[in-house]
Each structure stands twice: as C-alpha cells, then as structure tokens.
Amino acid sequence: MTGETLKIAKQNIRNKVSALLRKQKEEDRLKKSLSILKKLFALPEFKRAKTVLFYASFDGEVETLEMMKQSLALGKKIALPNIHTKNKEIIPTYVNDLQEDLILGPYGIKQSRHHRVKTVELDEIDLSIVPGVAFDRDNYRLGRGAGYYDRFLVRLSKHIPSIGLAFDFQIVSRLPRQEHDIPMTKVVSN
Question: How sure is the predictor about 1, in pLDDT bands with cuts at 50, 70 and 90?
C-alpha cells in the first residue's frame, strides 16, 4: 500500500466507525461501557496496577469517568494525558478529584488543570488505558490521526501494559499498518 492509499484507507475506517460512535444511543453506550469496566477490572494487569493512565472519553468513546471513580475508590492513583499541541505530545498528569481537577483542554478533551505540579513520570505508570477509533484482532489501533498516542506509546517501557477499550463494532479484522505502529497488550470490548 502506498502512503496515500494507506492514508485514505485509514480515513475511511475513521469516518465509518466515528459515525457509528456518534449514532449509538447514550443509554447503550453507558451500559456497554459498564460491561467493559467489569472486564477491565477483572484483568490481572489492572488488579496489580497502582497508577493507571486513563483517557477522558469524548465523542461517543467508551466511558471512562466511572472507571476513574472506581479506581480512586480502590486506592489506585489515576492520571490523564495533558495534550501539548505545540510539541504534539502527551504529558501524563495526576488527577485526585474528578470534579475539581479537570478542565476542558485542546480538542474539547478534559485534562488536569494542575499539569505543572502533578506530572507523572513514565516509570510510575503501571497500566495505560488507550483510546482508539478502531482496533484489529492483532490489537493494533487506529487513532484520530494526530499521532499523539503513537508518539507517547513509543516512550513507554515495553513492560507497561497498554489496553485499548472498544465497543464491538470498533473491532475490525485487520487495520492498515505502518512500521511505527505499536500493538496494544490487549483490547477489552463488550
């Protein structure tokens, strides 16, 4: 596949799955998200993690707010990505209070307001929960196209599990891939 053909193929998948995400009824999204939460929390990778990097869901994605609430209640430390558009990078930051600590960041995604004082060192992360528009059966992911997570995941130790969260319709047989693409450790779906 040429570079341009690959780009078009990825965009076609993004358009199709994004439309399905937005079309899904909110009640169904929350019900399926709860099912995914239960499966995630049952994983050994989650059980042994002390610090979990979540993502703040938006635009129809698997809902992560309840996951973060329950993780805090279990005594886990949670972090969210702070998006730095200038450097096109993710800086993980601690979140202690889901009401007080969050503000609307770039792209309309919630992030921590205290990004300067609560930065999480990469080796402090025990588990990374990763969003995606689509995933394939080999656990490769297709993001929104800006490359933030691709650049971030390369920086994470290969010993830190990365788990994608997806609704069943977000999983395809095989995604178009490039050499720099990194598969998730697992993908949890409903």
Answer: low
Q: Three-class SS of residue 3?
A: helix
| Pairing mode, strands 110-112 and 77-84 | unpaired
Q: What one-character DSSP code corresponds to residue 96?
A: S
Kindly give, in sequence order, each residue whose CB lies less than 8 Å from that of residue 171, ignoring residues fewer than 6 positions away.
134, 135, 136, 137, 187, 189
Is domain 3-189 given the CATH code 3.60.20.10 in the classification? no
Amino acid in position 186: K
Q: Which tokens hold the place of 46?
A: 């989650």
**Domain boundaries in the chain?**
3-189
* Dist CA 149 CA 182 (whole Å): 10
Collapsed DSSP state (helix, strand, coil) of residue 51: strand
- Report which residue type is found at 83: I
Angstrom distance (rounded) from CA 93 to CA 56: 12
Distance CA 155, CA 149 (A): 10
pTM: 0.94
Paired tokens of 64:
């992560």
Interatomic CA distance for residues 116 and 118, integer angstroms: 6
